[in-house]
């Protein structure tokens, strides 16, 4: 039985980890910390957990965390980078759901997150935890940087196109849309139901923190610098990301090969589902599940290939992928605790 | 391994049965019928089931159904009453999620459903499947009439009040609210997102089909005729029912005893959660789960006791309760396949 | 041209006043105050107003407000009671949309609002601004206390029943449901889209601030003490209130007279629409409009009369009623600026 | 007073025309036809219109329509092309909100709409009614083809870029998102609240009927063949379109000139609002209003210019633009009946 701790458990990522781990047969959550809610039973904050956990939030305490086999960080950026070095030195393995260890270029990190990075050593050693790209490295990692939600949907969708070299890596567009839970559980006026419940907008269109992560990931996949334009949008729903991806085929005739290429690339992936060409994946088809579903399109004889890719931002885009990474790290069946179908309607 | 069949599987109740049974370790779904969709793989209609079921919808065929241990009916009213007699004669056990066998007075049934009842014998033998009231009878039943969604939330909330005789049974009010999935998956203009997505209304305020079912159930519990006013409302959400119940205490001082009364009544019930007095149960706290959560209130020294009771209409109000009934009928752990936490946010 | 000021204009009531007054031919908004947003153009906060107002928020300044003919208070409770005396002394007329002057019993006010009332004189002189009850007094009022949203929907629905004496005033139940804008525009976690976007719950079931206002209003109408139970609920939509009202007929046969009674009572009311008996008013049918629509029901031969009453909480429940009161106070056509149809779909 | 008729008034476009015309001082609606609802008062179908119209739907009758000064067609495709020739011969002026007269190439029309076009003469004579492009022609037109919703948002956003020749016309991408009212008011399962209320997806990604209209319009603006990829998406809200447009600057340095270019291009347009560079227009900022709001972005030093453009699909994307066209055709103030602010929150 893996003894797991969660640092920063009051947000949506925290409660989603608790939901998924409640039915995981090989894990027990031994502590969950929150500075602001210390002492409060988790089931008082999240009544869906009544009857599932007796646990209360506790003050973050490094000694307690050291007794865990694995610690998940579900904190704002800047927290994990300060606590991780001591924990890993004590032999604790880490899955960090925050952005602290996702970028390799620390000056880029500092620019986007507005503070210097304090753990260069571990930023270098951290494994970027996209299992479809880095499963072997994840298996042996001490520290896994769990990918962001948008970067997960976007990298998986572009993956076969860039690996195969069939598209122009300097002309990538990712138009992505997310439900409101992606903004977290904080009392911001801009995220009130009264503000966004019946409206749609782009945001971060001049630059969003996930842009450098996407660029780094796609460049690694393409083994070349890519140029990617990424515009996120806010959808009046709670969960789900859809990314519509546009790439230019070097040879338009190659479009005919793409469906097979995608299916073969993901054949052995338990959580990537390539739907028949021309399908339109719905976010609800992955709601609550760890799957990424995608489908290919093109319009008439255009040289533009279109990929629509959907995930649940809180599952494959956060807590589910973290559990998947844990399963890999601890040599469990990769789908353990993640096998329930998505939640529809 | 229980071999289960589903008749009428294209609606929301059908897909919810499939979702729940996908992770149930003791059941295999051997057939699912649909006249309109025969031949179509279920995963083509419901993409959340891709990878979980290879099954396709088939024409309803009595011989095939006879090979099942259990058949769920998820059909419009009027279907089960015609097919059940032959199946039970063949030894198949039945959980009917439709309204066909819920009412004991067949003239009342005929009035509300607009057709004569065709199976008086089985209407009499059917066990009304509210486990919190009739667990023993369900265990041995050949045919279980699975309760309606509103009647489940309302009967559970009034249960301790009527059993204890502390309230006036002639002055009960049930003001209930449901998400849109309660209306089923049919192409009605009135249920379009464009019509109801940002609106709220009462419906059936002069009389709804669940009224006689509620009255019959509450009268049985009270062992006396009750008078109950029931007004349903349509909420712009997909799942969930909240019922606010009003009853008049014969002796206002008895209010102080109610919290304990409720807690004791439901102490051994795996799916009824009495929250602390003064709580406000949210429908999302039971979304996707088989729980009914409830809480008690009164205003100043009023003699009116208020109960707020929530369920997921598709789970405890339909497919989940059907699985619970199946578990009881087949002497399984009652929570088998129903132990995942609700889905929040 | 009436010169109007608005104190506390950043909330939903403030922007709704601006929306309605933008097309009102007889009013000009000369100042709108906000401590927190002073200096910011209103159209920067509310882009729907781009092109309609050049005005910026200003610091609240009594001297500037004294130059207005009318001042609307759209402030939290406790603000108007401190500023009103000086303004009325200067001859300014006031429509207070806050709760400060709604209750006549100041000890009750102090209990519910958690502070002593500081303007007993004006609390007594204030006219409770429900035009359907107090039109003549409003016409000459210096200070109008604009009714709360729930109290408006509930009082109008009970009005003919209580005036006529046909129902038992000691057994009234008001089960009311509101969209999220009723909670105002503040960064509360509990009002995030992620929290309430796909959920329904009761709140304040043990006592809500609108209860004493409702009780005071209904008692005045009934000319007797009433006992009323009031439970509000939160609907995952932005605007709209539906109140389902239950009352016990002294003589059940009187139900047949009620439709005519209601129609006659409201025949000359420009903003109350009695729909045909058995109708189900939708909140969207009044969205953006100053109307209250209602309809009558009963179930079989019950002695319970059911009234479903809908308003837009920001219009007839706040800003629209304030404009209606202003129209009455300044002897304008009562529908001036309020004649656009509701917004559907 | 202009005497207007509406053919096909039961859909969302029809009720929106009625809502807007209810407050238009220069128009009276003398007839509204519907085959399916003939005889039904419009206010029975649309309760928001109670008190505003006494009119009932009537059978479509050419003689009655001939007595109108103007007829709006709010019909499915294929209807207007059969009725228009006789009406225009009788001197009636037409604004056709359907797709019948939008495309000049009738073989393209036949391909996308699955039937031969029956009125080649009037397809040629029809003026494509985008006032920002064709105001003078509209003024004198007998027949105006009112643009589609997506084409309106997309053409306005690309307009200054293509007119100025600053971008590559062979690499245009329009990623557009629409609320559910765009699919009309028909009982389709796929548009139920239960299906789409909490989900997001692309649709028509391999080709949508608005693609040839967009291509025709952009090519006319660019005075060259354009290549445009257009992917529509369905947003779980009722009204609103947001289009995120991507174009490649021939010279990246030109980006600095674009804000001024856009502001100047639309300076005299009453319904196009260029927001400050870097803004994110929200669909709610135009809900119920005839405005198109847009803003410019680019990411770091990219050569991709991003335009986010929002409209209300039922107003500027349908009924509002039809009223605007009518105002132009009858030499009224272009904003007559269209001056109310958008509806927020």
Automatic annotation (TrEMBL), chains A, B, C, D:
Its EC number is 1.2.1.38. Catalyzes the NADPH-dependent reduction of N-acetyl-5-glutamyl phosphate to yield N-acetyl-L-glutamate 5-semialdehyde. It holds the Pfam family Semialdhyde_dh. It comes from Marinobacter salinisoli. The active site is at residue 149. Pathway: Amino-acid biosynthesis; L-arginine biosynthesis; N(2)-acetyl-L-ornithine from L-glutamate: step 3/4. It catalyses: N-acetyl-L-glutamate 5-semialdehyde + phosphate + NADP(+) = N-acetyl-L-glutamyl 5-phosphate + NADPH + H(+). It is an enzyme of class 1 (oxidoreductase). This is N-acetyl-gamma-glutamyl-phosphate reductase. Its main location: cytoplasm. The gene is argC. HAMAP family: ArgC_type1. The keyword NADP applies.
């Amino acid at each position: 039985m893996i003894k797991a701790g969660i640092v920063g458990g009051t947000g949506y990522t925290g409660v989603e980890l608790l939901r998924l781990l409640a039915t995981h047969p090989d894990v027990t959550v031994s502590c969950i910390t929150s500075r602001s809610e210390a002492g409060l039973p988790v089931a008082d904050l999240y009544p869906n957990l009544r009857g599932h956990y007796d646990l209360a939030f506790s003050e973050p305490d490094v000694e307690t965390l050291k007794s865990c086999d694995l610690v998940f960080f579900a904190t704002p950026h800047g927290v994990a980078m300060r606590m991780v070095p001591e924990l890993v030195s004590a032999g604790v393995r880490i899955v960090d759901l925050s952005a602290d260890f996702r970028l390799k270029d620390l000056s880029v990190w500092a620019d986007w997150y507005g503070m210097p990075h304090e753990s260069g050593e571990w930023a270098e050693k951290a494994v970027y935890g996209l299992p479809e790209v880095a499963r072997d490295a994840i298996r042996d990692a001490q520290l896994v940087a769990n990918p962001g939600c948008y970067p997960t949907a976007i990298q998986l969708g572009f993956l076969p196109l860039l690996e195969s070299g069939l598209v122009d890596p300097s002309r990538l567009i990712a138009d992505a849309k997310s439900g409101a839970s992606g903004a977290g559980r904080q009392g911001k006026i801009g995220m009130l139901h009264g503000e966004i419940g019946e409206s749609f907008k782009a945001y971060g269109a001049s630059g969003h923190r996930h842009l450098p992560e996407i660029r780094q990931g796609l460049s690694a996949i393409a083994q070349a610098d890519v140029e990617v334009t990424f515009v996120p949008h806010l959808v009046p729903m709670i969960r789900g990301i859809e990314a519509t991806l546009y790439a230019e085929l070097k040879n338009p005739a190659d479009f005919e090969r793409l469906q097979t290429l995608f299916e073969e690339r993901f054949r052995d992936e338990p959580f990537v589902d390539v739907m028949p060409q021309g399908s339109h994946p719905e976010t609800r088809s992955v709601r609550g599940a760890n799957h990424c579903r995608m489908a290919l399109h093109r319009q008439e004889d255009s040289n533009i290939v279109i990929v629509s890719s959907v995930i649940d931002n809180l599952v494959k885009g956060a807590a589910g992928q973290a559990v998947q990474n844990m399963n890999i790290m601890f040599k469990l069946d990769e789908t353990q605790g993640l096998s329930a179908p998505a939640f529809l309607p």
